[in-house]
Amino acid sequence: MSQARRDIIEEHGSDMLPDSLKEGAQLQEEDDTPAGEGPLWQRLAAARLGDVPGVRILGVVILALALLLGAFQLYIGITFSLDARQQRLTHLLLILALIFLMVPASKKPWGRSRLMLGVDLLAVLAAVVVSIYPIVNARALAQRAGAYETTDWVLGLVMTLLLLEATRRTVGWFMSVLVLAFMFYAWAGPWFPGDFRHRGVTIERLSSYVYLGNDGILGLTLGVVVTFVFIFVLFGALLQKTGGGNFFIGLAFVLTGRSPGGPAKGAVVGSALMGSVSGTAIGNVATTGPFTIPMMKKVGYKPNEAAGVEAAASTGGQILPPIMGAGAFLMAERTGIPYAEIVKVSIIPALMYFATVYLFVDIKARKRGISGMSRDMLPKFGEVMKHGWHFLAPLVLLVVLLLQYVPPGRAGLFATAALLVVAMLRAGSRLSLQDLLEVFVIAARNTLPVSAACAIAGVIIGVVGLTGLGLVISDTLVTAFAGSLLLTLLMVALASLILGVGLPVTASYVVLIILAGPALEQLGLAVIVTHLIVYWYSQDSNVTPPVALAAFVAAGIAGAKPMRSAVSAWIFAKGLYFIPLMMAYSALLLTGPATQVVIAAVTGMIALVGVAMAIEGYLFRRTTVIERVLLAIAAVMVMIAPEWDGWSQALFGFSPGSQAFVWGGTAVCVALIALQFIGRGRHGQAPSEARGELSTSTA
């Protein structure tokens, strides 16, 4: 067990977890913190270099850079005294230095050698030069904007190469290759056919544009990380270190533990609570999974099912307010819509998503006869609240500030300060000096892939701006699908799946919204609807094979096969695909009167129940083939009712109105659900349902 995890379990919040959860916790060192003793920064240095002379010096350097990054972010969050370009360049300098010092070039021995460390030190030096140059020469660069000199574009090329390598180390080779493909398209424009042909962009112009322009590396995408994201990453790191995660896990098990499949439902609720303030799927799995997954296995879930539930639930953390993923902050900046408005319209769909995951878990438990946990295995509600109620205060403060339209960065800063104060006032969550230093190291480490991805995404944005590629793809999509919104949505979902093979959520969202967003808006969707649909589809990289990052982390904890876990997660997370359809075709995102919103939410939830029954073939008893087909058709009628109305007009010359299909599909789903309830004990088809509780001895 790693020292950091031991601290979390034994020192912070242990009173909120029963012994059965602590003893059963399986820990994934690779996806949490490096094994070994000593402070986190020293373990990171040892993981980078091994047990060699000088490793302690490297550890101190990592700590110093992490503290410098944290102090810088807090400084600009409090004073706002630097202009945007200086903020982003300084942030990028510290991020690049940390990446090249912390993340080896390869997992093979040569990537961790001292010789490679020497090369990485040269890369750090190069990062210093390319980051300081625009700050020192800001006035001269402004005077010759558009007529850059050789030094300008050469340093821009160096910056791009550094970011490509940093992205390869932290995100993966796929994104680096994708960026190179976009750069090739910009350079080789005259060779492309049809509408994709353009004059071509020289390396000199492209390099200087993405390096010094307002829409490149130093553009809005990186700016959002600097302004908003880091503060919330720091908030999540502080919550993790003080034991707030244990409070949410304990509270979730109190609420759901005794019902059928209790541990899995606890994973759903716990991940929802933790994910709503962490905004990261993989971090959520690493935090809650070691407790929830072993308990799910203990009561009867297969390892891949336990991993799938945890991955699907943790993925929902990036769509559940108040702290959604980094893409939500990007959305607010790109659209000009206040973050508070995005939070408001996201609440109903996010709750529907978790309700769907919860429903799949419940069906699986009833179908397999998985019972709940016994009373003595669960924490007591009073004890959990006694030891952890203070963690609610910063969250309430955060929600109130966001709803009062306080800028997200400032709101996150206040909430982080409040969390530190309330944690230090109580012995169970009080941090030592080492703990506090580790909070900054954790925050810096968790920021690296986000910052690298958002910075290199600026190159793609620059290429799109120089070549007009976004408009070309938008017109192509609209023309190819004859203006069909449904086909365009399906194509966006497919593109998201393909991009999700190698891109993290935030990067996938940025690329998709640039390329496909205009097409959806051209087909009549509101700006916020378009962005949220693309953002939801971008989440599938966490749970969809062949690359499902959150599912793979969960599989490591569960001891399950990664691909089987990914398939299970994909099934449990079906709401990621169906709910965006409702966003497009109904008032689910508060795009209509209150009555329409209520109708959309209620009928949509009934349709999701129908989908779950059709997929699992069970609710209270087994469903027949005919019932499953009818449920699937009825659910789709509700989700895309306007399309059905259009098909009716085209085929029969009769338009009953989309509401007729909404209510018709809802009625069929309700009728079949009622038949399930009435016949739940008949035909001898149902396995023995969960009766009673799982005793401690059988657990």
TrEMBL record:
Residues of the TRAP C4-dicarboxylate transport system permease DctM subunit domain: 158-574
InterPro entries membership: DctM, TRAP_DctM-Dct_fused
Matching Pfam families: DctM
Keywords recorded for this protein, A-Z: Membrane, Transmembrane, Transmembrane helix
Transmembrane residue ranges: 57-76, 88-105, 117-135, 147-164, 171-188, 217-239, 342-363, 384-405, 411-429, 450-473, 479-503, 510-537, 543-560, 567-588, 594-613, 625-641, 661-678
Ranges of compositional bias, category Basic and acidic residues: 1-14
Spans annotated as Disordered: 1-36
Protein name as catalogued: TRAP C4-dicarboxylate transport system permease DctM subunit domain-containing protein
